[in-house]
Write a structure and sequence with these properties.
- With 363 residues, the chain is α/β, with parallel strands linked by helices.
- The protein has two domains: 238 residues, Alpha-Beta Barrel (TIM Barrel), CATH 3.20.20.370; 77 residues.
- Helices cover 45% and strands 10% of the residues.
- It contains 14 helices and eleven strands.
- Strands 1, 4, 5, 6, 7 and 11 form a six-stranded parallel sheet that branches. Strands 8-9-10 form a three-stranded parallel sheet, with no helix packed on it.
- Helix 13 links the parallel strand 8 and strand 9.
- Helix 6 crosses helix 7.
């Protein structure tokens, strides 16, 4: 699951994107891809569905099956799609690419798996212990309340001082009206983003308790892949890695909570990949150290140049378009250039190691 706010475009990214599209239409895609030997591309998806639900609306996690099919066709044509487990081997093919999914949405089984099977492509799903028991993950539960019962949910949100202050400031600065349906998505993103980045585990659980007391009970359908479905999916080439117990931001966990979130004992029989994905792509030194001690490899991040914090880190890129030219531009021009610039700036700063608590950011 990713941070709900989409990263605003900027002139540099826009220029790089246009350059990539031009190179693709000039017929130079294969040449550019071959220039970066040894580079592993990693893709991140979440929900593969024709439409968003109240659990996912506005979270920026949904890709249509048609766009996903176009992505797979492009990947199969230009790369060697390998499994995450292949990455621990010594002989990784050139132009290697891995396809991953976070959270284990049921839509992946329904809509993505048939397409992967059709094209005989492997993938890895990073699943949450809670989700395999079909218990709502906190982000989906909070989003549902904000979508279906916005007035009651926002009233509860104002009961929490830091969230109340943040909402008040945002509404004053942006003139957002909680009674205006057009402003609801911005307010949802404001709430979820603040909770995700600033709330402790205790605060999140307190917020959910108040929402359950203030809104009608949720009789949710099967939102996530059931534990009973996982063995059959594995038999078709789908690997399953670990994505924590409850999907809390690991930066905001106490030492005890961190140990609990990284305890995979309840889900271990369902996992056939000893790899890990950070919730939201966020990490800090205690999380990284603990995950390395547990022997996870690779460790999936989101963003650029996170491997400077650990050689086990593998950056992933999210794609939200079916256009081959756009995908090429993002994978081969925009992301590598941004990563190189960050690496250069890191080196120009004298090799000083950046605090991992500020890293692991979504793109």
């Amino acid at each position: 699951m990713k941070q709900p706010q989409q990263k605003p475009d900027n002139p540099a990214r826009s220029l790089l994107r246009l350059l990539g599209i031009a190179l693709y239409h000039a017929g130079l895609a294969r040449f550019v891809i071959q220039m970066t030997k040894g580079r592993i591309r990693a893709l991140l998806y979440h929900d593969i569905a024709t439409h968003e639900t109240p659990y996912t609306k506005g979270l920026g996690v949904t890709v249509s099956p048609d766009d996903f099919r176009r992505n797979l066709s492009y990947f199969k044509k230009h790369y060697n799609v390998v499994s995450v487990n292949d990455l621990i081997q010594k002989d990784i093919p050139e132009k290697a690419l891995v396809i991953t999914f976070d959270d284990g949405y049921e839509s992946v089984r329904e809509n993505a798996q048939p397409l992967l099977n059709e094209l005989q492509l492997p993938a890895c799903i990073y699943t949450i212990t809670r989700a395999t028991k079909n218990k709502l993950v906190w982000v989906n539960e909070l989003n549902y309340a904000l979508v279906m019962h916005p007035a009651a949910a926002l009233q509860v949100a104002h009961e929490f001082p830091s969230l109340d202050q943040h909402l008040t400031e945002v509404m004053a600065d942006s003139a957002l009206n909680p009674d205006d349906p057009e402003h609801c998505e911005s307010l949802r993103n404001t709430v979820i983003g603040h909770v995700q980045n600033n709330f402790s585990v205790t605060d999140i659980n307190a917020l959910l308790r108040r929402l359950r007391e203030s809104t009608p009970p949720i009789d949710h359908e099967q939102l996530y892949i059931d534990a009973d479905d996982i063995p059959a999916m594995q038999s078709t080439g789908i690997d399953f890695g670990f994505h924590t117990r409850d999907h809390y931001n690991l930066r905001n966990c106490t030492r005890t909570e961190l140990q609990e979130q990284l305890d995979a004992s309840d889900i271990q029989p369902l996992l056939n990949s000893h790899s890990f994905a950070y919730p939201f792509g966020y990490f800090d030194s205690p999380a990284t150290q603990r995950i390395c001690l547990l022997g996870y490899s690779p460790v999936m991040t989101v963003g650029n140049n996170n491997d400077r914090f650990s050689p086990r880190h593998l950056d992933r890129t999210e794609v939200f378009t079916g256009s081959a030219a756009e995908v090429f531009a993002q994978l081969e021009i925009v992301e590598p250039t941004i990563a190189w610039l960050r690496s250069w700036l890191f080196g120009a700063a004298g090799g000083r190691r950046t605090n991992p608590a500020t890293s692991g950011q979504n793109v």
